[in-house]
Amino acid sequence: MSENASGQIDTVMTEDRLFPPSEEFASKSAIGSMEAYQQLYDEVKADPTAYWDKVAREELHWFKPYDTVLEWNNPLAKWFIGGRTNVSYNCLDAHLDTERRNKAAIIFEGEPGDIRTLTYQQLHREVCKFANVLKGLGVKQGDVVSIYMPMTPELLIAMQACARIGAVHSVIFAGFSAEAIADRNNDASAKIQLTADAAWRRGKQLPLKEVVDEALAKSPTVEKCIVLRRVGNEVSMQEGRDCWWHDLMDEASADCPAEPLDSEAPLFILYTSGSTGKPKGIKHTTAGYILWAKKTFEWVFDYRDEDIFWCTADCGWITGHSYVAYGPLAAGATVMMYEGAPNWPADDRFWDIIERHKVNILYTAPTAIRAFIKWGDGHVDKHDLSSLRLLGTVGEGINPEAWMWYHEKIGGERCPIVDTWWQTETGGIMMSPLPGAIPTKPGSCTKPLPGVIPSIVDEELQEVPQNHGGMLCVAQPWPGMLRGIWGDDERFKEQYWTKVPGKYLTGDNARTDDDGYYWIMGRIDDVINVSGHRLSTIEVESALVSHDTVAEAAAVGRPDEIKGQAIAVFVTIKGDAQPTDELRKELRLHVRKEIGALAQPDDIRFTGALPKTRSGKIMRRLLRDIASGTEQAGQDTSTLEDYSVLAKLRDDEE
Ligand code: PRX
Three-state SS for 535? Predict the structure, then answer.
């Protein structure tokens, strides 16, 4: 255990396993060695403006060239000033004069099993038509279009159509409540609502239009609502306000040149829940965002033209924006898109999709991986996954034992794993192994991408030494960075730029190890302080997950008179294990043995499920309240996925 100074965070985790890329993988990669990575990293660090200037010219289409690469008036960055470009042009039109024009842009599979493929030419046509539909309803540059749709090609078409004409989209994940939609619509002054009659989810119909009707009753700025017929259920259509997608598309022209837009024209708003208070509308703009999404996609996924890339995230999240709707299309990739749940009609749906479509790259979240582990290996063993060559994760830290399972069971020990650390705010991946270059360690996001200058500081704003945890910041602007919080400049400054002046504060804790590898230690607010030692949640959780019986674990602090905080853990066990006092004792000893007496949990509660956000992150702040027996009032639970989990946890209190 390291000594604590200036509020640094102690690390109790050691991980010695190292997995270099195979020679074969490295030999085919664009960046195929650690030296090549380091050289590129150093080149960008030495002269970022020269590098991004070169890349922006090579990689983007410019209707009008920019005059200045970067203007940095902390905290406001502007990239490629004076230039005019268009995100949709770069994703679609740019491929139409190349041999990619007849390549599949999207291979879609609906939950009921319907399959549709759209080539770049076909997708371009649909996007142009829908862009004309929007124009026909009076949508102008800068207008906000609110999108609450199932994960079907039309969702992506709608986003691209907005980008084409300079409208700003605000995608709201089609699982949020009417209240959440109305809040976001009002905050953004949305003018148009897009939705569908319903969505398929685990064989059931989610009545999206019904939810939207309730939301629109409280969204006075919304003038029109366009409804996609996805399921065919009965819906009520309000005369003068609601129109069917297909009626409007039938009449729309397929001719819609992409609007030459200012580099800094807003592209989208995406609401993300702060740990407290109302959701923030994170704002991204045009040129810097698409360049970052494209470059990071190419670097991290080592993309080759013959690959099928499957990112399982819904377009309602930033991952679905950057690595479904934008980055891969800008790179001319083939994107697999799936509408529904991973366990419908059975727990092997993902493996079935991979086998049938011969998916080559799979990018998913630790919460999904932990669910697969819990469901059992039998579902995986039934399928041929030999088409896979690369795996990725995002959204939370991945516990080393879950990483090993992913590596062995899904990757057949041959696929590198890219553990990608980033945020809604960063626009694209910030830290990740480059799979042909950087040997991986289970649980580490390894190294920053070129152009990312991380800085880890303690409470006194001093850089912490290796093996000490502190607040993770980014010291220099990068093209994909957020440009603000919609309508709230003060909150933007206060949240990201005040505590550590001059640097972007990520809100996460991190450390580096002896090899300069980065380890994310969880959110700053989640740190547990035991007898003056600040412990990271992920380290305690990973120790628990390394026990055979444990599928998932969440660690939180609760007040303790003697130690300041005691450690309470919530544990989900695998199907065949029993939640006994014996097991409690064993888990306590296991953590003690793995990481030391200080991190030994004081309370262990078994639970069937953990409370999670709709994007799958464990909501530790709710667990903190339960562990300390304080009231729930005042807690924002609007992003909670399953309310019954909370009720159950409260009932189970000891
Ligand atoms: O805490 C980090 C965690 O997710 C946060 C960002 O969440 P969001 O804006 O919803 O974006 C998720 C998709 C990019 C981060 O501040 N996080 C994300 N990826 C990782 C991670 N934590 C550890 N390891 C990761 N790979």
Answer: strand
Q: Is any ligand 1 atom within 6 A of the Cβ of residue 394?
A: yes
Phi-psi region of 403 (alpha: psi -120 to 50; beta: other; left: phi over 0): alpha
Q: What band does 2 get if pLDDT is binned at 50, 70 and 90?
A: very low
Q: How far apart are CA 87 and CA 131, in angstroms?
A: 13
Q: By the 8 A CB rule, do 320 and 302 touch?
A: no
pLDDT per residue over 361-403, tens digit each?
Answer: 999 999 899 899 989 999 999 999 999 999 999 999 999 999 9
Q: Answer yes or no: is the C-beta of 607 below 6 A from any ligand 1 atom.
A: no
In terms of Cβ atoms closer than 10 Å to its own Cβ (0-12, 13-18, 19+), residue 601 is buried
Ligand 1 proximity of 508 Cβ (cutoff 6 Å):
yes
Q: Which ligand 1 atom is at minimum distance from the Cα of 421?
A: 26
What pLDDT digit, counting tens, does each position of 407-455 carry? Answer: 999 999 999 999 999 999 999 999 999 999 999 999 999 999 999 999 9
Tell me how far apart the alpha carbons of residues 506 and 527 are, in angstroms, rounded to a whole number. 15
Strand partners, 285: 266
- Domains within the chain, CATH numbers bracketed: 527-653 (3.30.300.30)
DSSP E strand boundaries for 432-563: 454-457, 470-474, 504-512, 518-523, 528-530, 533-535, 550-560
